Batch of 4 targets.
Target 1
Amino acid sequence: MSFRKVTHVLFDLDGLLLDSEELYTETFTKVCSRYGKQFTWEMKASLLGLRGQECANKIIRELNIPLTEKEFTQECNKIYEAVFPSVKLMPGAQKLAQHLYKKGVPLAIATSSSQDSVAKKMQNHKELLKCFHHITAGSSDPEVTKGKPDPITFLVCASRFPDKPRPEDCLVLEDAVNGVKAAMAAKMQVVVVPDPRIDHEQLKDATLVLKSLEDFKPELFGLPGYD
């Protein structure tokens, strides 16, 4: 299988670089159970890649929770304050980002989270943050008008590199179906490291599907390989 050579790499954050998706699941489960509602995997899977406000509205609407989006988010935020600082990195995340950074490949983070949420989750991973030229945080970025599967998060992120690469020259690393759809719509190749519960059929449009970032071979996309 042949892949296009790329020059820039865009990383998703939650579930790809950070093992944070379980923390979101625990938080949503807790808040929903206070109102006698069950937060299921099916519900969770449909939220992957959406911005914070989109997630809150979808949960409230579909589970009929008697809160406004703001109230729901405030309840979640109280839990996030306690759990986010302890979030761990995904296997291979630090190794890959630091390798590409040291080899001079321009990197950025394109996430549906807000800047505040990113800061809380990354407070103990400052070394990793140094690898990225910039972060586009969809939930708080005025230029990002929609969450994934809309391509705008990736298009805005790519446009903020000083040399303004073409979308075709960017590679996206993702973990979610909505992220794959967003990357494809942005005309970018996308490597996905999915939750094993995601139906493989939903990932058929991805350029490459991997079990772990540890399995990623940069040279497949014309990037410098590991020494």
Target 2
Amino acid sequence: MISLTDSQKIGMGLTGFGVFFLIFGMMLFFDKALLAIGNILFVAGLSFVIGLERTFRFFFQRHKAKATSFFLGGVFVVLIGWPIIGVLLEIYGFFLLFRGFFPVAVGFIRRIPALGSLLSLPGIRTLVDEIGESNNMREMWLNSEVTI
């Protein structure tokens, strides 16, 4: 079992509540207040879980500048009162920021018995295969010589 510090436990709670408020705000037709609370809680929770310095280093890497600007710009747009545009910007930035994590997450989900069989269905499988492969892995596979 993974041991968490008290601040990491608080961060997990804040992140969980942030995701809840974001989903709930979208379900209630993009309620500005709920989305704003969700954004603040999510970013604060992330800071508690991985620490302020690592959060800053994660968001402000040179190769993630575009992703960070879309994500944090979306948070700002939600806070000033345009929730639909802000959420779209956030979603795009989120996918750009965490695209390196998607292959790991898909591989983990495929090992779960019920979800793995769901991801193996014909229509879903091609979509998940595209999401689950990163560009670097695809390029390595295409450039490698396979001998049988």
Target 3
Amino acid sequence: MASLIGEQLFQIGGQGPPPPKDFFHLAVCEKRGEVIWRSWTISLRLDCRGAPPKELRTSHQDFLHHKRLQQQLGAVFGQRILEYTISLCQGKIDYLERLPDDIMLRIMSYLQLKEATLLAQVSHRFRKLCNSEKFWEHTVRNRCAGFTSDMEDIGNAIGWRNIFFTFFHTSGSKEQQ
């Protein structure tokens, strides 16, 4: 499973809170076991022009004890990102969220529609997958008894979800929610 993780567990970048216009980037790396915090000072002041970016590299364990860095990360990206970064450094990795979409869609194909509706409420990613054309195409092709190859052009034209709810939801479905 670890091969699905890749080099970076998480990364985010953005402008810090006003009044400064500084830019920040956070990367949490698995293979090297480190947290990388980069900052760029954005200023019109002459003494700040051409200033190189700052970079701090720390191990996951050291990050857990580095309260000042945690405060800065929380101020820039918010409490939710701070808590997520801490959990990653503690080794709490959500492997299901990290699976590629095609594998997730394959797993979702075993769910009943009612279960897929509940899954869509879990996260933004699952909502996106449950509402995707690929999910609904698979649902129509594999679960609807009245589907014919002639309907494929209609599905591509008006959308597979529309095909399902127009033609199959109330009468032609192999499964009843």
Target 4
Amino acid sequence: MEATKESLSGSDSAGPSTRRGHLGIPEAVFVSLSSEDGSLPDHDQNNQYVDAFMKQPGNESVDNVLKKLDEQYQKYKFMELNLTQKKKRLKNQIPEIRQTLHILKYMQKKKETTEPLETRFLLADNLYCKASVPPTDKVCLWLGANVMLEYDIDEAQALLEKNHYTATSNLESLEEDLDFLRDQFTTTEVNMARVYNWDVKRRNRDEPGPSNV
């Protein structure tokens, strides 16, 4: 049953207990407005004033800060691409597992009878062939890498139910990770705008005014 190929061996079906935090996604530092604007940041290491942020080691140059923020933004975009691909694989995989489980449950009912199971199997794209399957208590599941293993129907059903639970849990975790990642997008974009505006105000303040005649 090909529907289980990825579910039995793919990394997307790793147990939920192996996931920590938000898949190692670094939380973006939130740069607050200056206290001169009346906006006070929370007492949090991830929440800083623009002035204090720009005084940190390595932040002496606005161009360097904007470059680092842009690099961080691009890393978030790359993470989003990877998570979106994993999400797509899981969303395709879960219905396949459900379909295979449905077939196994039907075979469970038929294995005690003497009547053969009439079905169709896929030969090629859009090409099916009729088949007559005698009652059996064995099924073969794809493990991936062109490897197939024979299971008792009960064992196969237990394995697929476990994989279905794991894949569903991982999909929920991916949704949370993507939501968290979108928050980091927004925070980084706000930081870039605030650092840029801070530099514009600093330049205007430092520029000498017109001399009095």
